[in-house]
Write a structure and sequence with these properties.
The protein has 191 residues and is an all-alpha fold. It contains ten helices and no strands.
């Protein structure tokens, strides 16, 4: 009888697999090269994850968790709040590999929606659930589309000045909209 996977080792392998996929991509990932890079063997990965498909699902979930945690951390660590902080973080050169992986998976998910249904189910709704200083779902949808489009533009052209200026203009427009739609606070009455 095979012994059950060790939770600590499984998590260690998963985190290392995420790092590998961030650096090398996921479309052409094969278990043998991944196992070699992790200092193990393909059967060990199958023992811990059951199948390559399950490993991919768990890698993408872990990447999603990292993105959300790092985005929240960026928002809380910077003077800018909301969408400005998210943009500063996702557009930072240090995040280039992670963002390229995001777009790689997005493309794969659109091509194979059944295989990547979990990714597709969360990729927009995760951000709709985050406040990002959006006034309503429509403003949040515009924010998500703008950040995604500008980030894809940045990764493609590397024209940081133009794209950062476009983001700044969008933030001004979004704040202006928020100012127009947010009711003024009621004046306090003396007691």
């Amino acid at each position: 009888m095979a012994r059950p996977p060790e939770p600590e080792r499984r998590l260690e392998l998963l985190d290392a697999a995420v790092d590998y996929v961030v650096a090398h991509g996921i479309a052409d990932m094969s278990l043998r090269p991944l196992a070699v890079a992790l200092g193990t063997q393909a059967p060990v990965l199958l023992h811990h994850f059951g199948s390559k498909e399950q490993l991919v699902v768990e890698i993408l979930d872990r990447v999603r968790d990292r993105l959300r945690a790092l985005g929240r951390e960026a928002e809380s660590d910077q003077y800018r709040s909301g969408l400005g902080a998210v943009w500063a973080w996702v557009s930072h050169p240090d995040q280039g590999q992670l963002m390229r992986l995001f777009f790689e998976v997005y493309g794969l998910a659109l091509r194979h929606p059944n295989r990547y249904s979990n990714f597709l189910g969360h990729t927009v709704h995760d951000w709709l659930d985050e406040p990002m200083a959006a006034v309503d779902d429509i403003s949040a949808t515009l924010a998500i589309a703008t950040v995604t489009g500008l980030l894809l533009d940045l990764l493609t052209t590397n024209d940081r000045a133009r794209i950062d200026n476009a983001m700044e203009r969008f933030l001004i427009l979004l704040r202006s909209h928020a100012d127009q739609t947010t009711p003024a606070p009621e004046p306090s009455t003396p007691r």
